[in-house]
Amino acid sequence: MTQINAYGAESQDSGVGPMLIDRRTLRPDDVAIEIDYCGICHTDIHFVQNDWGRTHYPVVPGHEIVGRVTAVGEQIKRFRPGDRVGVGCLVDSCRECSACEQGLEQYCAQGFTATYNGEDRIDGSVTCGGYSESIVVSERFVLRMPESLDAAASAPLLCAGITTWSPLQYFGVGPGHRVGVVGMGGLGHMAVKFARALGAEVTLFTRSEAKRAEAEKQGAHHVVISTDEAQMRAAANTFDFILDTVPVQHDLNPYIAALQHNGTHILVGLLEPIEPPLDAGAIVFRRRMLAGSLIGGLPETQEMLDFCAEHGIVCEIEMLDIGNINQAYERMRNSDVRYRFVIDMKTLRPAS
Amino acid sequence: MTQINAYGAESQDSGVGPMLIDRRTLRPDDVAIEIDYCGICHTDIHFVQNDWGRTHYPVVPGHEIVGRVTAVGEQIKRFRPGDRVGVGCLVDSCRECSACEQGLEQYCAQGFTATYNGEDRIDGSVTCGGYSESIVVSERFVLRMPESLDAAASAPLLCAGITTWSPLQYFGVGPGHRVGVVGMGGLGHMAVKFARALGAEVTLFTRSEAKRAEAEKQGAHHVVISTDEAQMRAAANTFDFILDTVPVQHDLNPYIAALQHNGTHILVGLLEPIEPPLDAGAIVFRRRMLAGSLIGGLPETQEMLDFCAEHGIVCEIEMLDIGNINQAYERMRNSDVRYRFVIDMKTLRPAS
User: Could you tell me which of A111, A146, A104 has the C-alpha nearest to residue A127?
Assistant: First the structure.
């Protein structure tokens, strides 16, 4: 066991501050990683505030982790010290169920082990995330980060990126498809980039005319103002897929109406009972679908990273010293970030 | 124009009784059919009662029609007088949109022309259905009925059959799949037969233990009593597809929970806003899908009929004299039919 520096929340009201945590001694299949960058996800805020009522304090958030291998367990052949690697939202799963066998560890029948606030499957300890100097993770859950990508800007690929990539791949989005993206935040801007790179015709749905130029810069061919009924009516029956990144309640029915027959509306943000209610008639009468998708499995995450290297895709980020993290959270609560904060972990390590 | 005998409703309160209607003179692409049998669908009752507020009276229902060709228009090569043919829910569509080009006329972008209470695309008249001596239909919308199938028992294949067949085919249901069927009525019993014949492992969800023996007779491997929470809990995370034939409000969430990751719940009956609300979290966390499906296109209807001939599949029916139709409606309102009434149209024609 090694004691290291980290940032975390002691309680629901404490905010995030410095603390010491333990990292385990390497198991035979473990990789030890010195963390260089960690992205900030909205989920981090939810856990710090205990919004979902299942936070184990102290909690050390962070699941968009990029660093360098410093040591490997005796069984490890795939990584060597010095390799640039990444860790996303998952650090373990049962590895035996049909989902795990399909490389869809995020749908593990027994539940995956989250990178933070999870329970280690071997020693029962609570997992601590990437707001820390280093992390120890089982090889299967470690990604190879392409050296050609900017290390900081690729960190959010490990959550915001894969969450939008996975459904686009699963549903086979490509040339000839009309794809809508709802919301232009950390996830939405990645969805626009990916859908464009995959060859689709991309439309951003947004409430704000102010986002038009930015959406086009990220790759959107068209922008539809979702609060403009005439624009929404004109968009009816036109989309093959709509990727909906909005994590709060919103009326899905106007988007369902925008789907062609056989079209699919994909939720990656909303987790609540759907209100106002979804109109079943609009689903039945044109064979439309409502789907959901959660993060992504390890094999598809590696595929995404390799695709990003090939196409030069990274996230739009704003770099941050870890001492400013509470201000960053406040700005995120006000949607004041384009599009992802990434913590420079040098600012955590004591000057040597 | 020819005047013929029919049964229909004069008004919302009239019930169904005898009337005279006109059938058009054959157009070059028309087929004239003497009707032998016509199934009764719940939709017929809805239109007779004007439940959906869009009935044009007088209305002559009936869209599960089997008969013999009596004459053909000058362009017709595919049918000859004497052929056994069928007509389902559709008698026309725009024939030009992407859906029509894909043989999915039911999803016609301009709306299909319904077999009754529709508006003829050429002369603007209101279409009259199969509770009548004869019908005239454009060739594209006429099906070839296999002579090896019982003519009366195959009539409901044209609505109840194709409505369940189409989604099973579209979603590729076959060997190795666990398929649930919700509801054991006209549609549900066909869904059980088809899913079984396609090689799936079939479970009927029903509220009533009394339906177990009947479900097994129709081909179900298992029965789950949907009102028994312990049985529903035991069924969690097990199904690849659930075909939901229930046309009235019911809680979808227990069925969504019964789907495996990647599983799909398919609505073919419910047409209202979904209450209680669908839980988006259960959709997202296991990449489940909610889909809808409407009847079927002409090519897939013919494929279904040929499949039925190959596998000896027909509907379970109760034959009826047309004079008893109002009693039949009353029994259907009380779910007192196994599983479809079919009118013997000889009882309409005056004894010669």
Answer: A111
User: Across the interface, do B280 and A270 touch by the CB < 8 Å criterion?
Assistant: yes
Beta strands in chain B (DSSP E): 2-9, 16-23, 30-39, 65-72, 84-87, 90-92, 113-114, 134-138, 143-144, 178-182, 201-206, 222-225, 239-244, 259-267, 289-292, 317-321, 340-344
User: How high is the ipTM of this complex?
Assistant: 0.95
| Cβ of residue B225 closer than 8 Å to a chain A Cβ | no
Q: Where are the beta strands (DSSP E) in chain A?
A: 2-9, 16-23, 30-39, 65-72, 84-87, 90-92, 113-114, 134-138, 143-144, 178-182, 201-206, 222-225, 239-244, 259-267, 289-292, 317-321, 340-344
Query: In this structure, are residues B287 and B280 in contact, taking their beta carbons and an 8 Å threshold?
Result: no
Among A247, A253, A256, A257, residue whose Cα is nearest residue A276: A253
Condensed to tens digits (0 to 9), the pLDDT of residues A306-318 reads 999 999 999 999 9
Would you state the structure tokens that stand for residue A87, as one six-digit string?
């860790």
Do B147 and B194 belong together in one domain?
no
The β-bridge partners of B243 are B181, B266
At A350 the pLDDT is: 67
Name the one residue in this structure whose structure tokens are 């001596």. Answer: B133
pLDDT, mean of residues A341-345:
98
The CATH number of the domain holding residue A99 is: 3.90.180.10
At A349 the pLDDT is 75
| Shortest Cα–Cα distance, A280 to chain B (Å) | 5
- State the residue range of the domain holding B165: 161-292
Residues B7 and B153 in one domain: yes
Regions of chain B where pLDDT drops below 70: 350-352
- B261 shares contact with chain A (CB less than 8 Å): yes
- The answer to whether residue A274 neighbours chain B at the CB level (below 8 Å) is yes
Q: What is the pLDDT of residues B272-283, one digit of tens each?
A: 999 999 999 999
DSSP, residue by residue, A60-104: -----EEEEEEEE-TT--S--TT-EEEE-SEEE--S-SHHHHTT-
Which residues of A are less than 8 Å from B292 in CB distance? 280, 282-289
A30 and A68 in one domain? yes
Q: Are residue A195 and residue A150 in the same domain, yes or no?
A: no
